[in-house]
Write a structure and sequence with these properties.
This protein is mainly alpha-helical. It has seven helices and no strands. The longest helix is centred in the middle third of the chain and has 23 residues. The termini are far apart.
Length: 124
C-alpha cells in the first residue's frame, strides 16, 4: 500500500473495527498478495465498465451482481464490507479524484456508474 494513502487511512479510520480488521487481515500480505488483491479489485471495475458499455442500467441484475462481487472481494481481501461501508466507498469513488481517476481508467464514467449501482444496492 502507498505510504501516503496508508497514513491518510490510519488518521481517518484507525479507531474503526474495519480498520483494525484490515490491519490484522493484511499484516502478512506479501507484495504479490497485495497486487493480486488490488488487481482483482480493478478487474471488478473493468466489469463495471463493460456493463456500462453494454448499456445495462445501474439497477439491472448484471450491475447489481457486480456490486455483490465487489462487496465480496473487499470482504475476502481487506475487511468485512457492510452495506454501510460499501455505501461510503461508493461515495468516495466519485468524491475523491484519486479514486475516480483510477477507476475511470477503465472507461470514462465507470466510477460514477459503479457509485450509482452501489447506491441502488445499498438502498435495497
Amino acid at each position: 500500500m502507498n505510504n501516503n494513502y496508508e497514513n491518510e487511512a490510519r488518521k481517518r479510520w484507525e479507531n474503526t473495527d474495519a480498520y483494525r480488521e484490515h490491519s490484522e487481515k493484511t499484516k502478512n500480505y506479501t507484495k504479490e498478495k497485495w497486487e493480486k488483491a488490488n488487481d482483482g479489485l480493478m478487474v471488478v471495475f473493468a466489469e463495471f465498465a463493460a456493463c456500462k458499455s453494454n448499456r445495462f442500467a445501474t439497477d439491472s441484475e448484471e450491475a447489481q451482481k457486480l456490486v455483490s462481487k465487489l462487496k465480496s472481494h473487499i470482504t475476502e481481501n481487506y475487511y468485512n464490507c457492510t452495506d454501510e461501508i460499501l455505501a461510503g466507498l461508493g461515495q468516495m469513488y466519485v468524491g475523491d479524484e484519486r479514486f475516480k481517476n483510477n477507476i475511470n481508467k477503465n472507461g470514462d464514467g465507470t466510477a460514477e456508474y459503479a457509485a450509482e449501482a452501489i447506491a441502488v444496492y445499498c438502498k435495497r
